[in-house]
């Protein structure tokens, strides 16, 4: 008998209609981003003012260097450090603030700012008739009060400490008995400290207050020149915490007990 031929059925699967597209992924990502933004806003609304200013300052200036004044850097962390290049930018900011002072055109030649190895040095130089202090007095003049108040408001927002110095010229003080240029220079520096602390400078921000009398003249060639009479405000670079000393367990040097001298060394 002849073999019957086998019948083979081939079934072909109909192809799918293709990919559905990725538009839903974009919509989902937008939704997640919007929710995250909402949570950040809700968190900020219930945060302290310092955190709000720090976050706002970051979005305005992510590098954190172009606007050092006007943002409470202390609130954003104690690790903030003003480097030398930052001091140059801070100098520009303070100069812009001081331009708001009444009669600035008359005073600008008596205000000097210099970035030094110690920090930003601001000097308020006297004239022959008195500019920032009444002649022979430790009481700041209206111009002196205005400038010191502006400086205190801006410096109080920074973590850096300041030093205040009072200087006189070489003319002996003739105002009253038992009162010399030493007392006058120290009293003027202290008057600046009190005024600045009343207008924004923190109590723990003042590193020292010193009176130099005529021992640190600005112009030694002309010891009686009026510009030798001045107040110096030094905004110091932020201090870095010293690294901890390595202990013995961390690989530091161990202190070994002294060995008893041998017979041979004892003879020497």
Kindly describe this structure.
There is one protein chain. The chain has 268 residues and is of the alpha+beta class. It has a domain at 82-236: OmpA-like domain (60s Ribosomal Protein L30, Chain: A), CATH 3.30.1330.60. It contains 7 helices and 5 strands. It has helices spanning 23-45, 49-60, 84-98, 104-107, 142-155, 181-197, 263-267; strands at residues 111-115, 119-125, 162-167, 206-211, 230-236. A 5-stranded mixed beta sheet has the order 1-2-5-3-4. Helix 6 links the parallel strand 3 (162-167) and strand 4 (206-211). Helix 5 (142-155) crosses helix 6 (181-197). The protein is rod-shaped and about 145 Å long. It starts with 22 loop residues before the first helix and ends with a helix. The model is unreliable at 65-70, 72-80 and 244-268 (pLDDT under 50).
